[in-house]
Amino acid sequence: MGNKNVSACLTPNATVNYIYGKEDKVEIKLNSPVFSSTFCPGGGMSRLRFQNGDYSYVLYDVMCNSRQVGDGQWSKSEYSGLLVLNRDKVIAQKYCTGFEDDILGINSGILPKEVQREEFNYDLP
Predict the structure, then answer these.
(1) N- to C-terminal Cα distance for the chain?
(2) Backbone angles phi, psi at 53, to 5 degrees
(3) Does the global pTM surpass 0.70?
């Protein structure tokens, strides 16, 4: 995200933290996310939403089939990013760059059971 990092980190005490900022200076640190997900052909979309007053910080990842490249073969579309909302209005959208192969995504299998779930909001980009 430019010269800043955004992370959702599972802590040893089974909480999930949102951390945004530079390596040497954290600008925002939140916890208690809300998780949502849905399926798409060949994969799925996942989101972690962290609330801070009227603002929501939504980390998302997508992996779906994008186009057919052969008989029964599809290319994958994989991307992730951050949406910042003020109430329900998107005020910023950033795409993740500079991540290592196979380090993309929200691994819902390791989310603590205490993480709240919500219906997937299809109105968000």
Answers:
(1) 18
(2) 65, -130
(3) yes
E strands, 53-101, where? 55-70, 73-86, 89-95
The predicted structure's pLDDT at residue 19: 93
Domain positions in the chain are 5-105
- Contact at 8 Å (CB) between 49 and 33? yes
Beta bridge partners of 59: 48, 82
Q: Which portions of the chain are predicted below pLDDT 70?
A: 1-2, 98-105
Q: What is the SS3 assignment for 97?
A: coil
Q: What is the dihedral of CA 4, 8, 10, 11, to 10 degrees?
A: 50
Query: Distance between CA atoms of 89 and 69, rounded to whole angstroms?
Result: 37
